[in-house]
């Protein structure tokens, strides 16, 4: 059975892709139109594949409408950096770009890369060019393709980690689109022959929907491996990487009030060798390319293809294309899905310092001068910077002799390595949401600090302030901060109102349950206050909040 839908049923986005001539559309012409700060909708579909989204400042929308002005359009640009690694030189270029074109800020994302916000149309092309001069690309950072491949970032803590990072880079390279459109539009490249555009893996209409891969190295699940279309869980025996358990069909996105959409954890399909991983990911992606739903985008992720046809069918189809079968899954255990703050040392003796980036936003604000501090740090640091999967930053590969200077610089600029924070504060995440995200229904990044302060007071009251607790907020149900695997998740419904989801855990392998719908901020805090009180009194040993809730309050509602 094939998924081929007839042309009349294709979604509007599919039609745009089909007519785009391998992602060109009329982007080049639209960029030159001086009469508007925007681009046409169809080009907006295509620029995503090039790593940039048109947005407008939602704080200014009403006022601009009153003044009969077009919305305050600008562009978000996202880079694709497998494993999230940058050199200090690249950092300095990034910092300069942020100050030249992107509101003096760098946004660290939940997928180990950075975004710029607020780049106006006339600066878009030169900003893209300067990103490419940094030896980075934005191609396939967004769009219906394989996105940035994540990998546990403290990659050299053992040989196993180094190999896993290599796998993630190989996955990223193999699944990169081939089209020459990117070079022509942004880098003034010349089109050689149309045949050069051919997409051997994707074909002319790419995938039905976005596609995400992560490599996790137990006991760390900092990448939230089960939230991805494809996950690789490194299996280590006697200090050697023997291969990976493969997961498929994870995804977070859902739509309020539409039960046909839902978050799903990846299913463990089996085990593959290290040198089989790229082929496995490619064939999973190709099954999704051929069978994913191209008529309804809300139903187009791999998770629905798998649920509609069954795991056995899916695994069989993948194995038939591979020409070999996956082995039985190997045992593994995760201990945590957050970042490891402070200093970590690797076997070569080099040090790695994970810094806390509040809300993932690198900006100078009051005493916390992150942008300036990291610039100063990049001037003296000779190792690397690494973005983490939880919106933080690692100053990596520091020699013993340089540790004190790095610490002093961070200290001087008010940058914390997590030591000044409680575990619930440093592990918390929020998506961008307002004012830039066009899909936000409520605040997230801007609300997180106030929410954590208020939650902290409740935790203190119940003697729980030092407890680990996994809190995530998103401005809508799309799940960009992976809320559906948190212990406490607020999922935006309307301004100031959220669905309260509870019952995930600290390793990221259990989904939350909807506990109360459409609560105001004070109702959320009151509800949590009561639950935390009961938890403090009745928990068993070191039982986590999510585990306690699943054992008690959510007992009848968790599957
Ligand atoms: Fe996301 C759409 C931001 C990680 C699921 N996401 C968006 C857009 C582009 C809104 C839009 O389509 O207009 C947001 C831009 C906001 C802004 O102003 O910057 C946006 N997503 C983000 C980031 C920046 C959140 C953050 O605070 O870090 C993350 C960028 C990651 C990256 O570097 O590539 C981000 N998004 C995620 C994740 C988490 C992950 O991948 O680990 C998810 C859930 C996992 C998943 O994909 O299932 C996620 N984003 C979505 C969805 C829902 C997809 C679905 O299957 O339904 C959308 C909406 C869509 O695609 O239609 C979305
Ligand atoms: Fe925007 Fe929703 Fe993603 Fe938050 S979860 S960034 S509000 S799409």
Sum this structure up briefly.
51% of the residues are buried. By secondary structure, the chain is of the alpha+beta class. It has helices at residues 12-18, 27-32, 41-49, 61-66, 88-101, 121-133, 159-174, 181-187, 277-291, 302-309, 311-322, 370-380, 403-412, 423-426, 448-461, 521-538, 545-551, and strands at residues 52-56, 73-78, 85-86, 106-108, 114-119, 150-151, 213-216, 230-237, 240-248, 267-272, 342-345, 351-355, 361-362, 364-365, 368-369, 384-387, 393-398, 429-430, 471-474, 488-494, 497-502, 513-520.
Question: How would you portray this structure in words?
Answer:
By secondary structure, this protein is α+β, with helices and mostly antiparallel strands. Helix content is 32%, strand content 18%. It has 17 helices and 22 strands. It has helices spanning 12-18, 27-32, 41-49, 61-66, 88-101, 121-133, 159-174, 181-187, 277-291, 302-309, 311-322, 370-380, 403-412, 423-426, 448-461, 521-538, 545-551, and strands at residues 52-56, 73-78, 85-86, 106-108, 114-119, 150-151, 213-216, 230-237, 240-248, 267-272, 342-345, 351-355, 361-362, 364-365, 368-369, 384-387, 393-398, 429-430, 471-474, 488-494, 497-502, 513-520. It has a 5-stranded antiparallel sheet with strand order 1-2-5-4-13. A 5-stranded antiparallel sheet has the order 3-16-17-12-11. A hairpin with a 2-residue loop joins strand 8 and strand 9. Helix 10 packs across helix 11. The two termini are 31 Å apart. The structure holds siroheme and iron/sulfur cluster.
């Amino acid at each position: 059975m094939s998924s081929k839908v007839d042309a009349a049923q294709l979604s509007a986005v599919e039609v745009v892709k089909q007519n785009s001539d391998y992602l060109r559309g009329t982007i080049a012409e639209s960029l030159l139109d001086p009469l508007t700060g925007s681009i046409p909708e169809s080009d907006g579909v295509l620029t995503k594949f090039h790593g940039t989204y048109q947005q407008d400042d939602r704080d200014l929308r009403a006022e601009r409408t009153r003044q009969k002005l077009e919305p305050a359009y600008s562009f978000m640009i996202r880079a694709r950096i497998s494993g999230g690694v940058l050199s200090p030189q690249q950092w300095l270029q990034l910092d300069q770009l942020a100050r030249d074109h992107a509101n003096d800020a760098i946004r660290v994302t939940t997928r180990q890369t950075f975004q710029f916000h607020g780049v106006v149309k006339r600066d878009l092309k030169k900003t893209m060019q300067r990103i490419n001069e940094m030896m980075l690309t934005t191609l396939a950072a967004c769009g219906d393709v394989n996105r940035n491949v994540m990998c546990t970032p403290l990659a050299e803590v053992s040989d196993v980690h180094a190999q896993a990072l290599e796998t993630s880079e190989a996955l990223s390279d193999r699944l990169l689109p081939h089209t020459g459109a990117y070079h022509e539009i942004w880098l003034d490249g010349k089109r050689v022959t149309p045949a050069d555009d051919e997409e051997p893996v994707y074909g002319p209409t790419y995938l039905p929907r976005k596609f995400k891969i992560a490599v996790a190295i137990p006991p760390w699940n900092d990448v939230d491996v089960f939230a991805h279309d494809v996950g690789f869980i490194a299996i280590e025996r006697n200090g050697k990487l023997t291969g990976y358990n493969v997961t498929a069909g994870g995804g977070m996105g859902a739509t309020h009030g539409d039960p046909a959409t839902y978050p799903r954890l990846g299913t463990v399909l089996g085990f593959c060798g290290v040198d089989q991983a790229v082929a496995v990911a490619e064939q999973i992606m190709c099954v999704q390319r051929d069978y994913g739903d191209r008529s309804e985008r809300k139903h187009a992720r791999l998770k629905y293809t798998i649920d509609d046809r069954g795991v056995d069918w899916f695994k069989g189809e993948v194995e038939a294309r591979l020409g070999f079968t996956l082995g039985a899954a190997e045992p593994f255990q995760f201990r945590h899905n957050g970042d490891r703050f402070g200093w970590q040392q690797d076997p070569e003796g080099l040090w790695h310092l994970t810094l806390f980036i509040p809300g993932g936003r690198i900006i100078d604000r009051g005493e916390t001068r992150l942008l300036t501090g990291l610039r100063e740090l990049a001037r003296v640091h000779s190792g690397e910077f690494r973005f983490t999967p939880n919106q933080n930053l690692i100053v990596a590969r520091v020699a013993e002799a340089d540790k004190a200077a790095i610490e002093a610089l961070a200290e001087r600029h008010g940058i914390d390595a997590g030591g000044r924070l409680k575990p619930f504060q440093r592990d918390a995440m929020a998506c961008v949401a307002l004012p830039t995200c066009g899909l936000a229904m409520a605040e997230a990044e801007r609300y997180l600090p106030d929410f954590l302060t208020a939650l902290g007071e409740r935790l203190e009251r119940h003697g729980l302030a030092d407890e680990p607790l996994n809190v995530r907020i998103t401005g809508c149900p799309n799940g960009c901060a992976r809320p559906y695997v948190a212990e406490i998740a607020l999922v935006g419904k309307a301004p100031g109102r959220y669905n309260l989801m509870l019952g995930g855990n600290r390793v990221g392998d259990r989904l939350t349950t909807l506990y109360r719908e459409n609560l105001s901020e004070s109702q959320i805090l009151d509800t949590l206050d009561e639950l935390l009180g009961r938890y403090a009194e009745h928990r068993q040993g070191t039982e986590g909040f999510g585990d306690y809730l699943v054992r008690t309050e959510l007992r009848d509602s968790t599957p």
